[in-house]
Design a protein that fits this description.
Number of helices: 0
Structural class: mainly beta
Shape: elongated
Largest sheet: 5 strands, antiparallel
Helix content: under 10%
Strand content: 35-45%
Oligomer: single chain
Radius of gyration: 23 Å
Amino acid sequence: MKLVFAVCAAMMFVLSLGPAVESGTVTEGFDNFDTGFRPAGWSFFGCGQDSDADTVYFGVAAPSVRLDEDGDYIDTLGYSPDGASAVAFWLSALAANPSSSLTVSEFDSDLADWVPLTEIFSVPVAPAYNTYNLGLNPSTSQMVRFSYNKLDAAAFVIDDVVIDNVVTPTPVPSPTPLFLVLDSGDYTGDGLADIAVFRPANGLWAVRGLGRAYYGRAGDLPASGDYAGGGISNISVFRPATGLWAIKDLTRAYFGAAGDFPVPGDYDGDGITEIAIFRPATGLWRLRDVSSAYFGEEGDLPVPGDYSGDGTEVIGIFRPSTGLWAIRGVTRVYFGTAGDHPVPGAHQWYGSVRTAPFKTQIAVFRSATGLWAVRDGPRSYFGASGDTSLLGNFSGGSLDDIGIFRPATGLWAIKGVTRVYFGSGTDVPVAR
């Protein structure tokens, strides 16, 4: 089953990272690794999460920012070059004659891949240091990455990172996406929806009772689903800036572009989530390795689901301006008003008989009043203005439970199931 939720009355997601800093030497957001915090303007993948003792330490406040041999790395937020540009930094070693190496790469948008700028093996032992100034390709540089290649127990200290002559976003926390489609939120494989959040500012994933991991960066959208078909939801992100889909421990692929909605789902009925996008500007749906179609228009919100109960999801849209639900090949109906959030799913029918098949039902959540309304079904009041709607099998019953996430306090309230505090105001719930 699929989760579709929205936050606030505005039915769109925001990808802007803030006002641009014009050309010239840019230091804000690309500096001060010695502060003891993960500095703004950078994305951290796995840094400091593992127990391996042989790490690369970034800054004198180690181990707050570190890499190990398991593919961890850091890279910048995306930027645009303005003529000739370069990355400068200083580097020192924590042990004599290290044989491990640190690789600095830039992202080549033409190749859609990372291209090494240099691999550094030998640097002076602290407190001495070497300085580096590496030229960047003005036509393709969009990000810079530092990654560790472990050969021994040596470690490096890096600081004073400066990238000059670029137009780059002012590093501010990534805004919470205002609309989201997930295909699965069972991260433990027990058949239940898990209480879990994604923190857009730094790519943190936290699953209650399971753990924490960093995967993604500012501007990414969570796109969880069962991409392996094993009954467990994979931590996954979609990066609108480049069309990248990154599915943890499984695959990375480019599919989509800026302005697209990620709409993962099982569109061929094989029990495996497919990578898919909806492009509101043209109404294009692209389902990887399945099909493409035009259905919808600018301003519509994607609401795919199994509306026939046959185990296969179909494409559909909700039009907030009129309350139109258009489900391709199934139905067209008006249900809801401007300001309602679409919450299609196999809803819990309180006080009534539950019958199979458990197909997706048309339903809305009205944040202004806390109203939940299922077409041809019950109405219930649960939640308040500003709450994010939740829908998933949290109780282990046959159908979905309704609930809310309250960003102001981190409250999760699942009707008839539980109330718990998990997360904060900038977090995005990724439960289903």
